[in-house]
Specification:
This protein has 257 residues and is α/β, with parallel strands linked by helices. It is built from 8 helices and 4 strands; from the N terminus they run αβαβαααααββα. The chain is extended and about 90 Å long.
Length: 257
C-alpha cells in the first residue's frame, strides 16, 4: 500500500498485470477451447475478487509503447500504488461480465445452448497474507499494531478455510451451473455489485479493446527484445568459439616447440 507502483520487466504495473491482464490474456487464449466444450459438460470460470473493487478508479486505458513511456509503464496510463489493487479488481469484474456476454453470443455448431458460466466470488474479509499486508500497509509499525490487535482480527476476520467456502459453493452448487451466468457470489449467495461501471457495455468494449492492444504491444516488444538478446548471445558464442580456437592453436604451437 502506498509508495511507488512496482513495474515488471515488460513495463507493466505488477498488480495490474497479475490481477487483471493475466486473466484477460489467459482467457483470450482459452476462449476457443471453452466454447468448444461438449454440451453436456458443466464449465465454470471462477474469478476471485473482493470488496476493494468498490474503491477502484477506472483510468483511460490507452496503450502506449514502452519506447515512449514516461514512467516506465507500457500499455497503460500511470497507476497510483494506493489504488491500483482496487482498480484491478474493478476491471476484472468488468471483464468477467463482458466475457460471459462474449460466451453467450457464440452460436454453437450443434445449436446447443452455451454451457460455460462465469462466476465472480468475494470470499469476504479473511485472515490471509494479503489481508495482513493490507491492514499493516506493508510497514513494520503496521505489523506491530496488527500483532497487538490480533485478538480483534481473530474475532472479526474469517479463517482461510471459512473464506474458501464461497469458492467451493461456486464450483459445486448445481444452481450456478445453469442459467445465463455472470453471477456474483458472497457469503455463499448471489448478490449484486455496487459499481454500475461493471455492467457498462461501452466501458467493457473500451477496456477489452485496450487490453488486446496492450497484449499485442507487449508481445511485439517482447519479440524484439528476444531477437536482440538472441543476436547478442550468438555474437558472444562466436567470440567465445574464436577465443577457444585461438587458445587451442597457441597451445598446439607451444607443444610442437
Amino acid at each position: 500500500m502506498g509508495g511507488k507502483a512496482a513495474i515488471t520487466e515488460d513495463g507493466l504495473e505488477s498488480t495490474w498485470g497479475l490481477n487483471y491482464m493475466a486473466n484477460f490474456h489467459l482467457l483470450s487464449i482459452l476462449s476457443p477451447a471453452i466454447r468448444a466444450q461438449p454440451p453436456d459438460r458443466d464449465v465454470r470460470i471462477v474469478f476471485g475478487t473482493c470488496s476493494a473493487y468498490m474503491a477502484g478508479k477506472m483510468p483511460d486505458f490507452e496503450p502506449k509503447s514502452s519506447s515512449k513511456k514516461d514512467n516506465g509503464e507500457a500499455g497503460q496510463t500511470e497507476f497510483e500504488a494506493s489504488s491500483v489493487y482496487a482498480t484491478s479488481k474493478l476491471a476484472l469484474m468488468n471483464f468477467a461480465v463482458a466475457f460471459q456476454k462474449h460466451l453467450n453470443a457464440y452460436v454453437r455448431p450443434d445449436k446447443k445452448p452455451m454451457n460455460a458460466r462465469v462466476i465472480m466470488v468475494d470470499p469476504g474479509w479473511t485472515r490471509t497474507p494479503g489481508m495482513r499486508r493490507h491492514l499493516t500497509f506493508g510497514t513494520l509499525w503496521g505489523l506491530a499494531l496488527y500483532l497487538i490487535m490480533w485478538p480483534v482480527w481473530w474475532l472479526v476476520l474469517k479463517s482461510a478455510d471459512q473464506g474458501a467456502q464461497t469458492f467451493l459453493h461456486a464450483v459445486m452448487e448445481e444452481e450456478w451451473g445453469r442459467g445465463e451466468g455472470g453471477y456474483f457470489l458472497k457469503e455463499c449467495r448471489k448478490v449484486g455489485w455496487s459499481r454500475p461501471e461493471i455492467n457498462d457495455e461501452d466501458l467493457q468494449k473500451k477496456l477489452w479493446s485496450s487490453s488486446e492492444k496492450t497484449i499485442e504491444l507487449l508481445e511485439k516488444e517482447g519479440a524484439k527484445r528476444r531477437a536482440i538478446e538472441k543476436k547478442q548471445n550468438e555474437k558472444a558464442e562466436k567470440k567465445e568459439a574464436k577465443t577457444t580456437a585461438k587458445e587451442a592453436n597457441t597451445e598446439a604451437k607451444q607443444r610442437r616447440k
